[in-house]
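Troubleshooting: if your tokenizer reports a length mismatch, compare your output against this known-good record of 184 residues.
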Amino acid sequence: MTEEEVRIESKREIYDSFPKLVVYVSIAILIYLFAILVFIPLGHGFDIAGVPTATVISAIAIISVLVLLWRSSREIKDLCDAIGGLIAVNVGREGASDEEVAHYQKAVKGIVYVFAVVITFLFIGSLLTEISEGAAGILLILIFLWAVCTLYSSGMAISAEIEATANEVAQKLEKGVAKKEEEY
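Known-good structure output:
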């Protein structure tokens, strides 16, 4: 793709995906707020076959929020690809190659995914503690391990671009020095 094609496609994806993401996240937040502020407090003191109603409501809220966030994951991916493409075109080396665009997209996706999962845990974790504090703790540890691996992978993608840019600059400097030596 040419730089202009990457720029146009990236902007189109942002205009397409961002509103959908806002709707999904807003619905998830509303479900969370109603669950945590209204239904779970109302459910305390009630049991269904020995299972506390607040626990059942928490489980339903967790599943609902996860389904909405799963649906929004495609929009998040599209937005990350668009942002990565725009970064490659505007910040990267001259003539953004497909490889360069892919590196920036991978880096952006990794960082945004970590933020998205951490924010999701902030919601899910408070609901999960209604069911089991141990499960919430184990989930947090697993998220941390995944975040370390994902951030490392994102860093390596950026590192590849930094190395390529440094090589490009070094070659230009070497040509400039060689040209000056020839003139003398």
